[in-house]
Design a protein that fits this description.
Blueprint lengths: L10 H70 L2 H4 L12 H4 L5 H11 L3 H24 L57 E3 L7 E3 L14 H13 L4 H10 L6 H12 L2 H12 L12 E3 L5 E3 L6 H9 L7
């Protein structure tokens, strides 16, 4: 055996070698522990740097997100808001409606000056914003509570019941008890229709043949010897004057109801309705109550009561001649 690899034979030498190896092992373990501790400290330091950098980036993203949300809110108000919200008379808020400043690069010096100038008005602006928000909330609530008032319309009731088989309980086979009902409303429109009123006039005669024939009186009509009743004439007048419906469209509407009445006949009915004394008196009363009237100054040809043509002079109008005939006196302002 090689002497370099031989073990000592003395016990004290062996103890010395073992103590030396134990101290060497402890030194190596301590060095390894210190190395691991240094690596952990370095790792912790790196993680703290990453965390700080991530936190700063997250805060920056939050600020950018809030700024973008404010811009979107302003853009939506500018695009879809009412006119009183688009234009604010306060000069301090005009920048909110300037589309160019929303996309411009911020100026630190300008922002600092603006912040210093508006610092004194923050409380007032916040109070105004809160008041405007409360007013908008009340308006939305009022709009949500607004419902159709159907109780003022004629009500037609329809009662629906379940079948006799459904009235019997499927478990105990006893008849069920009615505990109430649910109401489902449907708003319906009943279109106008043409109808003919036949007035049968009784005729009486005496058998003596000397007193003649007695016939019941014909009910009064708006236009004498005209088939149009008051309801039809009223509908034509309202459609023409109130709804601005031309006569040819009224003709088409009557065709859809099953009767064709030429527009010339409808126009004649309209003309003869305008000559009704109660109708003319009502229009005259309303016109004469006005202080200022607007008329058409286009010269037109009129005919007097004898049928002679009357040409309007320069500066006169058809409305002026009509008002003069109705008794309205022109006076200087």
């Amino acid at each position: 055996m090689n002497e370099s690899h031989s073990f000592p034979t003395e016990l004290a030498e062996c103890h010395r070698l073992m103590a030396q190896q134990r101290a060497l092992l402890r030194a190596m373990e301590q060095q390894h522990a210190e190395q691991q501790h240094a690596e952990q400290q370095q790792r912790y330091a790196d993680l703290e740097q990453v965390f700080d950098r991530t936190s700063s980036e997250f805060e920056k993203l939050q600020v950018d997100h809030q700024g973008l949300m404010d811009e979107v809110r302003l853009l939506r108000r500018w695009l879809y808001g009412s006119r009183r919200e688009r234009h604010v008379p306060d000069n301090r808020q005009q920048h909110l409606f300037d589309m160019g400043c929303l996309f411009a690069e911020p100026d630190p010096a300008g922002e600092l000056i603006a912040a210093e100038g508006d610092a004194s008005t923050d409380a007032a602006d916040v109070a105004k914003a809160v008041a405007a928000e409360e007013k908008a909330a009340r308006r939305r609530k009022k709009r949500a509570d607004r419902k159709l008032c159907l109780d003022a319309l004629p009500q037609i009731e329809h009662h629906h019941d379940v079948s006799p088989d459904e009235k019997v309980c499927g478990v105990c086979q006893r008849e069920k008890t009615c505990i109430g009902e649910e109401l489902s409303r449907v708003l319906e429109f009943v279109p106008g229709q043409l109808e003919v009123h036949n007035h049968h006039l009784k005729k009486y005669v005496c058998t003596c043949g000397q007193c003649g024939v007695t016939t019941a009186l014909v009910p009064m009509k708006p236009i004498e010897k005209c088939i149009a009743g008051p309801g039809l004439l009223s509908s034509l007048i309202v459609s023409k004057s109130g709804d601005h419906l031309p006569t040819y469209r009224s003709e088409d509407i009557l065709v859809r109801h099953g009767l064709h009445i030429p527009r010339s006949t409808l126009s004649d009915w309209m003309h003869r309705s305008a000559l009704l004394l109660p109708f003319v008196a009502c229009i005259t009363t309303r016109v004469l109550k006005q202080q200022v009237l607007w008329t058409d100054d286009t010269p037109v040809k009129f005919f007097d009561r004898n049928g002679k043509p009357v040409q309007t002079k320069k500066g006169e109008s058809s409305g002026a001649i009509l008002l003069s005939a109705m008794g309205w006196r022109f006076r200087s302002p």
